[in-house]
Amino acid sequence: MAPGGGASRKEIIETWPNFTSCDTTNTQLEKSITFLGEKFRKSSIHGVHELLECPICTRSLYPPVYQCPNGHTLCTNCKTGAHNFCPTCQVELGNIRCLALEKVAESLELPCRHQNLGCHKILPYYRKLKHEQRCKFRPYHCPYAGSECSIKGDIPTLMLHLKEDHKVDMHTGCTFNHRYVKSNPEEVDNAIWMLTVFDCYGKQFCLHFEAFSLGMTPVYMAFLRFMGEDNEAKMFKYSLEVGGFGRKLTWQGIPRSIRDSHRKVRDCQDGLIIPRSLALFFSGGNNGQELTLKVTGRIWKEH
């Protein structure tokens, strides 16, 4: 300890994590921030990310950032889940804020985490997370339905994945004529047919067809999703038609982006819905032995 009871610069550097809003003077805090700022400037981007990660859940740290008396930092969620004991050293946490780290983070600008996918934005640290949640370059989830597929990536990556791993039907063109067959039409719960992908106008579209119960009514449903962003999807329209014996049922809509899960689109009923009784009629009668539906459709671009 320096004469007069004041801490030396060396001691400030070594003990900065213990500063709190109650026992830290403005001078000490400023010196601590200066030291940390120099440390951050000398660190690589990888090092900066590590320093601003919660060591418990590895998510980015955002105010309030907490620390134990020994200087171990953690986020609000992990502090709540730790029942007031540091997960690293098991000492009692209290409510100590790591103000120096919060201030340094406030002064930083970092690249978007989707930089390798094409986003070149540099953002203030506290705006970075919100941007990344909406960044148009963030990877898409695999649009395949009927299995728990964890694959994510850009559109070319997903196209290759769908073709090689899911063996989906790939078609080129903006019109289609599909036949769907079900040997036991009485069973409709969670029946999902093979996904079909169309290459049209240089873009890709996914055609879904499945059976489920809408309330107490067994139904079949067909709908289209666009492999891209919602603002691009709105540039297109599509129509679906099913019929037989002089009757037909038609649907016209806008394809939904694959940013919306297939389940979300289905639950919104945003597509062609065919009650089972009508589907059996189109198929050739209510004999209940086999269902055969022919669904035709077209995709076009709005000018």
From TrEMBL:
Instruction: Specify the pathway.
Output: Protein modification; protein ubiquitination
Q: For this UniProt record, give its keywords in alphabetical order, as a comma-separated list.
A: Metal-binding, Transferase, Ubl conjugation pathway, Zinc, Zinc-finger
Enumerate the Gene3D superfamilies for this protein.
Apoptosis, Tumor Necrosis Factor Receptor Associated Protein 2, Chain A, Zinc/RING finger domain, C3HC4 (zinc finger)
One annotated GO molecular function is: ubiquitin protein ligase activity
Q: What's the name of the protein?
A: RING-type E3 ubiquitin transferase
Q: Which InterPro entries did the record assign?
A: 7-in-absentia-prot_TRAF-dom, E3_ubiquitin-ligase_SINA, Sina-like_RING, TRAF-like, Znf_RING, Znf_RING/FYVE/PHD, Znf_SIAH
* UniProt enzyme class: transferase
Q: Which family does it belong to?
A: Belongs to the SINA (Seven in absentia) family.
Q: Which GO terms describe its cellular component?
A: cytoplasm
Q: What is its EC number?
A: 2.3.2.27
Q: What PANTHER family does this protein's entry cite?
A: E3 UBIQUITIN PROTEIN LIGASE SIAH, RING-TYPE E3 UBIQUITIN TRANSFERASE
Q: Name one GO biological process term.
A: ubiquitin-dependent protein catabolic process
Which reaction does this enzyme catalyse, per its entry? S-ubiquitinyl-[E2 ubiquitin-conjugating enzyme]-L-cysteine + [acceptor protein]-L-lysine = [E2 ubiquitin-conjugating enzyme]-L-cysteine + N(6)-ubiquitinyl-[acceptor protein]-L-lysine
